[in-house]
Amino acid sequence: MRIVGHPVLPDLPADEVGFTFNGEPYTAREGEPVAATLLANGVRKLRVSPVAGEPRGIYCGIGHCYECRVWLNNDTQVRACLTPATEGDSFTSERTEV
């Protein structure tokens, strides 16, 4: 479920990187946004709303909203649609207590 050729966009590098999301391993093309990798692997729910507990995922896909925010290495919240996959990173829906 990944676009491999596009008439306007440049091809992604062939190099792959590995990261985890909620403890599950994923493989992305180097530089590919985390949200794109997860979407290509059927992951639609990235977190739940802290107010109503409703599922949240990719909404705008271009960094204007914050619906796709996830925790990077249990330290910083990032927007998954803008954050490139990097080897060894760990992304989670919720921050865990240290």
From TrEMBL:
One of its GO terms (molecular function) is iron-sulfur cluster binding. It comes from the Bacteria. Keywords: Oxidoreductase. Pfam families: Fer2_4. The keyword Oxidoreductase applies. SUPFAM superfamilies: 2Fe-2S ferredoxin-like. This is (2Fe-2S)-binding protein.
